Amino acid sequence: MEKILGSLTDNFKNVVCAIEESKDLAMFIVDELVGSLKTNEQRQKKKEKEILEQALQTKASIKDENF
């Protein structure tokens, strides 16, 4: 399990640290790991989408003010 966690990219660094500190890795099964990683990935994508939407709204507001 530790080899799998160590092979993940930096995008998962925070979740890897949390898993290592909060779980007994000997008892942690692969399905739980995959679930944790997928949840983290979905949160990151949602946050990125929200940031992009906010940036586009800000850009549109600035464009409207200039006309």
Structure description:
The protein is an all-alpha fold and 67 residues long. 78% of the residues lie in helices and 0% in strands. The chain contains 3 helices and no strands. It has helices at residues 2-6, 13-22, 30-66. The chain is rod-shaped, with a radius of gyration of 18 Å. The mean pLDDT is 79.
* N-C termini distance: 58 Å
Global shape: rod-shaped
Helical stretch count?
3
| Radius of gyration (Å) | 18 Å
SSE arrangement, N to C? HHH
Main sheet characteristics? none
- Described by its quaternary structure, the protein is single chain
Low-confidence stretches: none
Residues in helix, %? over 70%
What's the pLDDT, averaged over the residues? 79
Counted beta strands: 0
How much of the sequence is in beta strands? under 5%
User: Structural class given helices, strands, pairing?
Assistant: mainly alpha
In brief, what are we looking at here?
With 67 residues, this protein is mainly α.
Q: Layout of SSEs?
A:
Blueprint (H helix, E strand, L loop, with lengths): L1 H5 L6 H10 L7 H37 L1
Could you list some keywords that capture this structure?
0% strand, mainly alpha, single chain, rod-shaped
